[in-house]
Design a protein that fits this description.
The complex is a heterodimer of chains A (149) and B (426). By secondary structure, chain A is an alpha+beta fold. Helices cover 39% and strands 18% of the residues of chain A. Chain A is built from five helices and three strands, in the order ααβββααα. A three-stranded antiparallel sheet of chain A has the order 1-2-3, with helices on one face. In chain A, β2 and β3 form a beta hairpin. Chain B has 426 residues and is of the alpha/beta class. Chain B has 14 helices and 17 strands. In chain B, the strands form five sheets. Chain B has a seven-stranded mixed sheet, sandwiched between helices. Chain B has a four-stranded antiparallel sheet with strand order 13-14-17-16, with helices on one face. In chain B, a hairpin with an 8-residue loop joins β13 and β14. The chains are: A alpha+beta (149), B alpha/beta (426).
Chain lengths: 149, 426
């Protein structure tokens, strides 16, 4: 195993302490729940879709630093993207966190801080939870207006 | 911590010669896996409540079985089959003595505690449960002592009741009494809680349940590696445990059942070895305990289970327990002194596990940081989600202790936790 600082980079610790877009979303029309029974991570993802464009995205829940920071950075990365673009980005993100440790990885901007996860295979699920939940949310058959009480 | 009634403090149930002086550092050398370094660090294995490591004696027994005795049991005339059968049945006899059962027919060899509980739920449970009847559990049960009862309640229309626990993680006996009624047919409780370490007053639970005409099944998975077990003193109707938690191979275990109940119960699974005669018109079942052991079992595993019993019973069990409890006490004191620590499970009688959270750091992150320091713990819900919900936490860190743990393991745990705090300091 390489150094823990590869996993817990300062950006990740920061997003864990102060997650961005950490709220219920007024005007959300898609919503999904994500749950990782291994560690008890739970999150609710809110999307506001305008046609196939993600106008706004937010999340709530509790989880480990990796899952929380991943959800936080994901919400920043998705705003303004089309659904197809978001799903393509998930594929590239997933490839990055599951590639063999000593190989080169694609530069995914701020999301590249999660490249260290590939050296900790049990944590891949934590890093991917928000993304899987996003995929479930856009597929939600009935657009659901979410109350924010 | 003090042994309870129903538990023999002097461990007189063993058959093996007494007298191996207990020395944890020497004991550690009996376990080849503990000699390795992980991530360049000395391995501090503090996850025995999850599964224990196996001593050389058990590993050798498995090798010896496959090299010298492997054959199917109870059904061939050749010498290998005789050896295999002899090894398998010798392990059953060791298992009988381990729980101090009076009758070998009362010992069913299983795949583990989960298997034993499901067996009772699907045979005795289906026989006695019906609408209006109730099954009573405690709030601290492992999922394996919850879900089998939910299944059989759905199948039969019976109702599940759950006795609450207090802030220390102890069963509230007054509430237990209030929920116990003439409708209660089955009481299912852990001897020792896997998530909290609480030792339940099983003899008292059995006495009160029997007054109401209910039978009692005890989940002994966490008790078996620590407490001497005496099913006659406890007075329970069923007692299930797992070999892999007590230094034996995975997928082994025993279910003790009172023979008069086992006789009345229908078989669990059908197949070879559990029958006396089969025609398409009528099948007669085998005698106890074989009626409940369908198919070719985990013969090598059972032989290894027997070796694990010999290994454990070769020690002065009271000395082992005193050592484990002293480590638990030391670890509890030193972990509690770390800022932001909250401990779950502070029962007056507990053993084996220390469950806690670190404020501001998720249990899973703590687990990863400890792993990098060579410290193996479990972080999560410990297959006891209702316990976590009861205390309102998503997950805890659990350090659990076994026969091979030493003060160095506690040192490594405490140092790792301090490192986690530093890393996550704002």
């Amino acid at each position: 195993m390489s150094d823990l600082s590869d996993l817990y980079q300062e950006v990740i610790l920061d997003h864990n302490r102060t997650p961005r877009n950490f709220r219920a979303l007024d005007g959300a029309n898609r919503r999904a729940e994500g749950f990782n029974p291994l560690c008890g991570d739970r999150l609710t993802l809110f999307l506001q879709l305008d046609g196939d464009v993600i106008r706004d995205v937010s999340f709530q829940g509790s989880g480990c630093a990796i899952s929380k920071a991943s959800a936080s950075l994901m919400t920043e990365a998705l705003k303004g993207r089309t659904v197809a673009d978001a799903e393509a980005l998930f594929q590239r993100f997933h490839r990055m966190v599951t590639s063999p440790p000593d190989t080169a990885v694609e530069d995914l901007g701020k999301l590249s801080v999660f490249a260290g996860v590939r050296e900790f295979p049990v944590r891949v699920k934590c890093a991917s939870l928000a993304w899987h939940t996003m995929k479930a949310a856009v597929k939600a058959e009935k657009p659901e207006v979410v109350s924010t009480e | 911590m003090t042994p309870q009634a129903g538990v023999k403090a002097d461990s007189t149930t063993a058959s093996e010669p007494r007298g191996r002086v207990f020395d944890a550092a020497r004991v550690r050398e009996d376990f080849p896996i503990l000699a390795q370094r992980v991530h360049g660090k000395r391995l501090a294995y503090l996850d025995s409540a999850n599964t224990s490591q196996k001593p050389r004696a058990v590993l050798d027994a498995l090798d010896r079985y496959y090299e010298q005795a492997n054959a199917n049991i109870h059904r061939a005339t050749h010498v290998l089959s005789e050896r295999a059968t002899q090894g398998y049945e010798a392990a059953r006899e060791k298992a009988r003595r381990f729980v101090n059962a009076a009758d070998t027919r009362s010992i069913i060899l299983t795949r583990g505690t989960t298997d034993g509980i499901n067996l009772v739920a699907q045979t005795y449970g289906r026989m006695v449960l019906k609408p209006g009847a109730e099954v009573l559990l405690s709030w601290m049960e492992h999922h394996s002592n919850i879900v089998p009862w939910q299944l059989v309640c759905e199948q039969t229309g019976a109702t599940l009741r759950v006795a609450p626990i207090n802030d220390r993680g102890e069963l509230i006996m007054d509430e237990f009494d209030r929920l116990l009624s003439d409708r209660t047919r089955i009481v299912a409780v852990a001897h020792v809680s896997n998530a909290l370490g609480t030792i339940n007053p099983v003899d008292e639970i059995v006495r009160r349940a029997h007054e109401r005409g209910a039978v009692v099944i005890i989940d002994g998975a966490q008790a078996a590696p620590h407490l001497p077990i005496d099913v006659q003193a406890i007075g329970c109707d069923f007692y299930a445990l797992s070999g892999h938690k007590m230094y034996g191979p995975t997928a082994t275990g025993l279910l003790f059942g009172r023979p008069e109940l086992l006789e009345r119960m229908p078989p669990y699974q059908g197949g070879g070895d559990m029958i006396q005669s089969v025609t398409f018109e009528k099948t007669t079942y085998n005698v106890l305990p074989y009626k409940f052991e369908a198919g070719t079992p985990n013969i090598a595993g059972v032989v290894g289970f027997g070796a694990a019993i010999d290994y454990l019973q070769g020690f002065d069990r009271a000395a082992v327990l005193a050592h484990e409890d002293a480590l638990l006490e030391e670890a509890t004191e030193r972990v509690a002194a770390i800022p932001g620590v909250r401990i779950f499970g502070t029962a007056r009688r507990k053993t084996g596990v220390l469950s806690f959270t670190l404020d501001g750091i998720h249990a899973h992150d703590v687990g990863t940081i400890l792993d990098a320091e060579g410290v193996a713990v479990r972080s999560g819900q410990h297959c006891a989600q209702p316990v976590m919900d009861w205390f309102g936490v998503p997950a805890t860190i659990r350090a659990s202790f076994g026969i091979y743990n030493t003060i160095e393991d506690v040192d490594a745990l405490v140092a790792g936790l301090r490192k986690a705090r530093e890393m996550f300091a704002a």
